[in-house]
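Notebook, p. 212. Picked up where the previous page left off. The plan for this session was modest: take the two constructs that came back from the sequencing core last week, fold each one, and keep the raw output in the notebook itself so nobody has to go hunting through shared drives later. Recording the first one now, exactly as returned: residue sequence, then the structure token string.
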Amino acid sequence: MTLRVGSHPDNLSLFILRHRGELETQAVSHGWQVEWMDYQHGADSAAYLASHQLDIVGTGTTSPLYAQAKGLDVAYLGASPVSNANCALLVMKESHLQVPQQIKGTRIACIRGSVTDRFLAQQLLQNGLTLKDITLVDLSGSESPRALREGRVDLWAAIDPWLSAARDAKMVRMLGQVDEFIANRTLFWCRKSWRERYSRQARLALSVLAENDRWIATHPLQAAELIHQHLAGSISVESWFTALRRRSWGILPVSTELLAEQQRQADDLVAAGFLNNSLIINSARQGLQA
């Protein structure tokens, strides 16, 4: 049996695990193989699951909602603890934009499928707007600051570690910031049909992920060096080290609290125009516990 797992820079738990080789070691002891797929954008995860190119992915909380809305049989495997959703709308210091109410008609760089979608939905709803009132430009965290400097976008919905790095550079100012209503998590998920058939493999993957998160928490400098080594054009080791130390690490089982958070987020995304149809998140509950 081959366990196919996705790795991308937007999910640091899986990205670090992929380059440590610990999952392969554990899988071999069970007679299984591990096949990693490296890709750049977490938003592509659902397509790889739907086409059966991957079995397990890790993303922000919005990607599985988009996947479920498109008909994928989503099952949640585990989640990170709630962390501070350090997300802000940034503009260049000389920009004419002064308040969030002015975002109508603007071009905003963001990482689609990440916490920025929920953050932007919140910003739009608070100002009586929807997705139709702005243009989103899907860019990685490392590409967005250049696009902002060059004027290819008007705003940047930035998240850490790029947010902290941009603030340190003192070339930007903040137009709006996430509030504590948004529960920021990393989710690990799969197809429900795969989860039901390969529950042992799912449990193994989650166990190794949990151990990997414990390693990151106790070895943040080594983890930062590993990311910098394998992520071309990355920010400095020091910036990664700071970002890793700020995060809450660990893998939690799926809970009713998590599903309620997902339901609230789905409702907000529908209201803001990010999703076209309402979702019932409890439908993804069967077979979740790892």
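Okay, moving on. Second construct, recorded in the same format:
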Amino acid sequence: MNTPGSLTYVYAVTHRTGPLGDALASLHGIGRAPLRFLPLTADTTGPAPSTTPLASLAFVASDVPERDFNETALKNHFEDLHWLEHVARTHHDVVQAIAARAPVLPLRMATVYQDDHRARQALAAQQAVFTERLDQLRAHTEFGVKIYLTPDATQPPPVTPAPAPLASPGKAYLQARRAQRHSRDAVYQQAEQAAETIEAIASRHATQRVRHAPQRGELTGPQENVLNDAYLIPDDQAGQFQAAIADAARSFPDLRIEVTGPWAPYSFAMPASGQADAPEPSP
């Protein structure tokens, strides 16, 4: 039941179990609010159900102040980077804590409902899809693979005109510009080869892939990100996947190939075909 003046914030979908409930009791949500299971029915007095996956399906939720998470407040807060960082970090920490103990479907940050009843309605509406997806993600973990062009590789060499006896200044300039283009093209060709190598490695280990847009701006600094993929890897193959990527990276000296993770399956929470979307907050 919600406290007065609060809304229901949901972090993820999982299966309700006793051990996970014990773990949640030692964790906190946004604003250090206690975390709780929000199952399909309001009866949470008995032991965690284990007879069927549908019976144990639950949101992980906490209360948040209505004054900070109503529609108007959220629009204002989304322009406050300090507030966003705090909420995003707490949301992520809760999801990762669940993922370390059970299959989990992360929900979007700031998925908020008017009350527990509205949240249960959303859970019930997609219970079959959620249950199927959790089964597919069991014993799998997300890893990211990024390819960056190093600053030295993308920085063109200085244009130095050849000595006058060898070429005119105009011709020398054009020759130098052509050499710059060839150098840069060679780096991009190397990146294409690296991407093909990574895809071949992933085909031996990954069960799914999501291709994200390359990162830009402050997220990459002076380096150019040209590949930003996420892979769903069975837990018993995670070490082999990471080792194979690290070994392949040594063949591409002008690139930085980075493996991130393990992560909760943010990129795979819903089927790529769009069979169902994450639940939308109720007004």
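Notes on construct two before I forget. The domain at 140-266 is CATH 3.30.70.260 (Alpha-Beta Plaits).
Flagging for discussion at group meeting.
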